[in-house]
Amino acid sequence: MVNWVEAQKPLLHWLVRRAGLRQQTVELDPGTVISFWVPKANVTTKKKSSVCNSRKEEKNKAAVVLVHGFATDGIVTWQFQVGSLADRFDVYVPDLFFFGGSATNDPDRSPTFQADCLAAALGRLGVQRCTVVGFSYGGVVSFKMAERWPDLVRYLVVSGSTFAMTDSLSSATHQRLGVSSSAELLLPESVEGLKALLSAATYKKLWLPDCLLKDFLEVMFTNKKERAEMLEALVISSQEASVPHLQQERILLLWGENDKIFNLEHAKNIKEQLGEKATLKIIKKSGHLVHLERPCVYNKCLKEFLVLVHPEETGHDTVAEMMNWVEVYKTLLHWLARRAGLRQQTVELESGTIMNFWVPKANVITTKKGSACNSREKEEKKKPAVVLVHGFGMDGIMTWQFQVGSLVDRYDVYVPDLLFFGGSATDAPDRSPAYQADCLAAALGRLRVRRCTVVGFSYGGVVSFKLAERWPDLVSSLVVSGATFAMTDSLSSTSGSASRRWPSCSSQCLSRESRHFFLRQLIESSGSQTAFTGTSLR
User: Fold this and answer.
1) In 19-109, which residue ranges form alpha helices assigned H by DSSP?
2) Three-point CA angle 17, 18, 23, nearest 5°
């Protein structure tokens, strides 16, 4: 089975490379290495550890170092920040020891050791001055680095963290979150444990399928023995703790208003202890994972601070920053669909009428005589066909993204785009669900689908009912969610206006009028509604 968390990492790495970063490993001592993502122009060559930099020294950008927390490695933690910063700043994303590609055979597991090694590795990369941005456990490391290496750390940004995890603070946090130890919370052994961690770390309840959470556990929570030792070394006696003497001129505390792990009261105490050099910025409707829950607001606050302390850094936003993240996600989704064994297929029914599908790789129709390129030799070995028909908000593969991977092992899954969604279109004036159903039936026929189970959602459920009624020899069984036989005028008035204004979306402007026409034709008069006949519902 495909591990979907592992499967998305190559795409994430590809996006980071598109933003101008490259992977670099720094060996400090035999057995001690730190993995980084660094600016392409600042990659260190093996020859005399010289920096291969095509830019003149005076044109170097200000360096920003992003230090991750305890659950994931650097690039996964900061995936929504890298593209936003890479144009104006030299971004460095390290993996702390026992995360990502970093490791050490030294027995020291303290945040101080992490800070000293990170500072040494940055020196090897030619970083002389930088702004450090630390999150959670990475914030503790960042405070240590700022205290011990003031000539390196010019400015500091910290989110959801503390100077040091004292035994009293640790005990109070465990009691508040209902756990017996930090390891119970931060090193979950089960899907239920991971759900508890996500619940504590987020403002809104985050739902993910159990199979995806299981994949996340397998990929992200490795090196448990060493990480457990890091958690033990993190806690110090309250008597030993003191407010660090930080020489940095400006410090930004960027906090989620609803952080349950290091709450807002704790952030205010840190601000008070640091004095006037510190600024506390609170982001509403966000928890501990503030940079992931509200990345746009987080990035805006972070960049405002960075531009304030680095006024010389001006410039335009990069393509990566202006990137439509929905389009980026679609690229990932299409790649995952291909990994699951599906391929895109366009069926032309007549001139000007085409339907786009995701179909099983083995059932792709070649252009040669319309034959099926099917590697299965015996007809009886074909899997049962399942057709997933989307609703009105999104195209097929976006609607059914969590179902495809669960079904492909046992069934031949077909995911069409209805007309004027995705890659499907027609110049015919008919916009009725019956016309959608007829075109879908014809396209399935071209794809050699003789019998199938149809699964319809919302508007796609209306189309599915029509398909089952008009094509009973094709539809063997039917599954419908959140739909109706027909949208009557009386039902429509009860549910609210069906012709409400659709949100602006540049990629679908051309089809918006057609979708309004769909809605008008969807509303049939109560007197014209006919009884549903044909395929039995099971």
Assistant:
1) 74-77, 79-85
2) 10
Q: What is the pLDDT of residues 274-316, one digit of tens each?
A: 999 999 999 999 999 999 999 999 999 999 999 999 887 655 4
Token pair for residue 281? 């910025």
Determine if the pTM surpasses 0.70: no
Q: Report the b/e string of 78-100 with b at 16+ CB within 10 A.
A: bbebbbbbbbbbbbbbbbbbbbb
pLDDT single digits (tens) 362-386: 999 875 544 555 544 444 467 999 9
Report the distance separating Cα 429 and Cα 354, nearest Å. 14
Report the C-alpha gap between 36 and 527 in whole angstroms: 68
**Burial of 110 by CB count in 10 Å (0-12 exposed, 13-18 middle, 19+ buried)?**
middle
36-71 pLDDT per residue, tens: 999 999 887 765 445 555 444 445 799 999 999 998
CA-to-CA dists, residue 371 to 266, 288, 341, 365, 473, angstroms? 67, 55, 19, 6, 22
Identify whether the C-beta of residue 79 lies closer than 8 Å to the C-beta of residue 66.
Answer: no
